[in-house]
Specification:
Layout: H1 2-17, H2 25-48, H3 53-82, H4 88-111, H5 118-147, H6 152-173, H7 187-205
Helix pairs in contact: 1-2, 1-7, 2-3, 3-4, 3-5, 3-6, 4-5, 5-6, 6-7
C-alpha cells in the first residue's frame, strides 16, 4: 500500500513539475482521491481493526468512489482524443447514461439477494464499472489506431489503463480461488502499483509534444 501511494503521489508531483496538472486534472484527481482513501482506510483499520464493520464499509465505499473517479478519468481521455472532433457533449451524455445504467443494473442484482447489504451494492458497482471501463478502454484504443493518434502521453495512458483494467478483471474472476491460492492475496496490491507507476513514467519521460505511431505497437491489418 505504501509503495502504491508513493507512486500515486509521484504522478501528481510530476504533473505539477511538468505544468500538466490542469491538463490531466481528472487523472490527478483520481490519484489524490486514492491517496486520501488509503489514509482513511489506514486510520479506520488502526482504530477499529480489520474485521470491524467500520473498516468493511470504509473499504467497499472508498473502492466504489475510486472506481467512479477512474471512470471519469477514462472519459477525460476520451475528451482528449475526440476533443478536436467536437464530440465532447455527446461523450459526456453517453458517459452519464452508461454510468446510470451500470448503477441501476448493480442495484437490481443486489436487490435479488436476501440480505441486500449496502456493501454488496458497492462491490457490485465497482465490479461492473471495471468491466465497463475495460470495454471502453479497448474501444478507445481502437479509436486511437483508427484516428492515427500520435501523442505519446495519450497513447501510453490508454495502453496502461487497458492493461490495468484487464488485470483487475482477471483478479475479480479469480476472486473465488483466493481461499485456496494464497498468492492471489498479493495480486491486487501489485496491480494497484502498476497504473500509477506506468503513468508516472509516462508523465516524466514525455511531454505533450512527444509523438509516436500506435501502429508500431500493434499490427493492424489493412
Amino acid at each position: 500500500m505504501l509503495l502504491g501511494t508513493a507512486f500515486e503521489l509521484a504522478f501528481v508531483v510530476c504533473s505539477v513539475a511538468r505544468r500538466s496538472f490542469l491538463r490531466y486534472f481528472f487523472l490527478n484527481l483520481y490519484f489524490l482521491l486514492t491517496i486520501g482513501s488509503s489514509v482513511t482506510r489506514y486510520f479506520i483499520l488502526s482504530t477499529f481493526g480489520l474485521n470491524s464493520t467500520e473498516y468493511c464499509y470504509a473499504y467497499f465505499y472508498t473502492d466504489a468512489l475510486l472506481t467512479l473517479a477512474l471512470y471519469v478519468a477514462l472519459i477525460s481521455l476520451y475528451s482528449h482524443v475526440f476533443g478536436e472532433l467536437q464530440f465532447g457533449k455527446h461523450l459526456r451524455l453517453a458517459a452519464v447514461l452508461l454510468l446510470l445504467g451500470t448503477a441501476l443494473f448493480s442495484y437490481a442484482v443486489v436487490a435479488q439477494s436476501a440480505d441486500r447489504l449496502s456493501t454488496s451494492f458497492a462491490y457490485e458497482l465497482s465490479q461492473n464499472l471495471y468491466f465497463v471501463g475495460l470495454v471502453l478502454t479497448y474501444v478507445l484504443w481502437g479509436a486511437l489506431l483508427k484516428l492515427r493518434e500520435t501523442r505519446t502521453r495519450i497513447v501510453q495512458f490508454v495502453l496502461s489503463l487497458g492493461v490495468y483494467f484487464s488485470a483487475y478483471a482477471a483478479s475479480y474472476a479469480l476472486g473465488g480461488l483466493a481461499s485456496r491460492h494464497s498468492f492471489l492475496v498479493f495480486l491486487a496490491p501489485a496491480i494497484g502499483c502498476f497504473l500509477p507507476l506506468a503513468w508516472t513514467l509516462t508523465m516524466w519521460r514525455h511531454t505533450d509534444e512527444s509523438r509516436l505511431v500506435p501502429a508500431q505497437l500493434v499490427a493492424v491489418p489493412r
